[in-house]
Amino acid sequence: MTLEQSLCRRFCFYYKPSKREELACGGYRMVERLIRRGKKISFERSGKAFGPETVDALEEALCRRCPFFAYDCDFAVNKEAPPCGGYLLIGQLLESRTVSLDDLRDMD
Ligand code: SF4
Q1: Would the CB of 73 count as within 6 Å of ligand 1?
Q2: How far does residue 96's CA lie from ligand 1's centre (Å)?
């Protein structure tokens, strides 16, 4: 199964199978890097709300480094639109302590 199938199709509100994005969002790229570094990732959706520490970590280590942060992401602008699938998956990984904020900071 590709990352597009396991992450974008399953988690992302914005996913459109027919649309080929030239530029992957920061969430997708970070999940790719976590897998390359050997993190064992479950792609089951938990559906649980994130605590404030997770939200802060996602903003700092994910969204602020995402190419869509400044202009294209409505979630980043006003938090009224849903976040991308990568945000949701990485939030779950933080909540379950599969990854830490330091892991995310160390992802360049
Ligand atoms: S929620 Fe928006 S800014 Fe944050 S990683 Fe996803 S696309 Fe990028």
Answers
A1: yes
A2: 20
